[in-house]
Each structure stands twice: as structure tokens, then as C-alpha cells.
Amino acid sequence: YHLLAWTIIPLLCNTCLPLDSIEAVMWGSQWAWGYDKHPPLSAWAAELFTNLLDDGGLYLLSQLCIVVAGLGIYRLGRLLSLSGKQALYAVLLLDTVYYYQFISVEFNVNYMQLPFWAWGWYFGIDAVQNKRRISWLGLGVCVALGALTKYIAVFMLVPLFAAWVARGELKTAVRSPGLYLAGAVSILLFLPHLLWMMNHEWITITYGLRRGAGEQALW
């Protein structure tokens, strides 16, 4: 119901796309490995969905990100021994948060990164708990794709390491070859964007620093 409601309502009511969504489409039309403000993944996705479904594609894309993240939260809850109902309630509670309602119609990097956080945590816990190499691979992919959306996504590793510590699994994780497989996969997938940044004077980094300095000046 969430996917349908928050895709159809803005499609019927909005007269134009939100600013961030328009910006993403304009970037995506260039199919570059980076842009002046952000890494490329959200822009690529915006361009693809707009080509397929026009403006409605962006409303759908934003809600797909939320729904896929919700599936990751459900799987994580089940992995942490929640019952099916408890895990489902955890997901449904997201709809009580304003961020997942009205403003979710504005697709941007923040929504694009949601699935990678949720599934990254799931894969990280599953990899150690059940010793699955495929989950280590999944963690590496999630970290890389998250960083290709917004650099802050690498901080998903902070609560993951905290969870390993709390569960007494940190030594197991650090000694596992899978952790280093995940790191190698992340670096390999992120490398083209890193090379792009090097060839463009680290423009995404300098943009963030300039914007941060500007906001501090206002205060």
C-alpha cells in the first residue's frame, strides 16, 4: 500500500517534480562517473526511471528505495530473533515517520542510500552469525553502492562494528577472510568514481567543504 499510495498521490497532485529530483535527472542525462555535488548512482537511477516512466518514474523510484529498505529491516529483525509480527511492526512503524511520508516524494540521494544501509547491516550480521561468504560479498556491494550514492554511507560500518562488539563477534569478523573480501569488492566497485574524482580536482569533496564553510559563516 505504501508503494502505491506515495507513487500515485504526488503523480496526481504535483504540477512539477521537486527540485532535487529535477537536479538528479539533469545530472543523470550525462552518464558521468560523478557530478559536482554527489557521486553518480542516484543520478543514473533517476535518468533510467525517467526514461522508462516519465515523471512518475521518480515518484516510484523513491518509494521503491523505501520498500526495499523495509525488506532489509524485516530480514534483519528476523535474523535478530524477532518474530515475524515483531519484524513486520518494525517496518510498519516507518510509516509513522514524516521522512517516509510527505517528503518522500522528492527523490534524492538520501532516499537512494536507504536500501544499502538496511541490507548492509543485514549482510554484515548474517556474514558473521551464519558464516556466509555470499553475505560478506553483499556487505561489500552495499558499502560500495552506498558510497556511490552519498559518501556518508560508509558510516553504516560504525553501528555494524558496534553490533559485532556487543554480540562478542568482533574477533570472528576481523579474523574472517570474508571481511577482506568485502573490502576488496567495495574498493573495486568504487574505484572508477575515485579515478573520476582525481581527474576532476576532487570536486565533490571541495563542494562539501565549501558548503560547510558557507553554512558556518551564516551562524
Largest sheet: none
Average predicted confidence as pLDDT: 93
Number of helices: 11
Number of domains: 1
Percent range for helical residues? Answer: over 70%
Distance from N terminus to C terminus (CA atoms, Å) equals 42 Å
Structural class, by secondary structure, is mainly alpha
Oligomer: single chain
* Share in β-strands: under 5%
Topology:
Blueprint: H1 2-13, H2 19-28, H3 41-79, H4 84-92, H5 109-112, H6 114-129, H7 133-147, H8 157-166, H9 170-175, H10 177-199, H11 203-218
Helix pairs in contact: 1-3, 2-3, 3-4, 3-6, 6-7, 6-8, 7-10
Describe it.
- This protein is an all-alpha fold.
- The chain has one domain.
- Helix content is 73%, strand content 0%.
- The chain has eleven helices and no strands.
- The N and C termini lie far apart (42 Å).
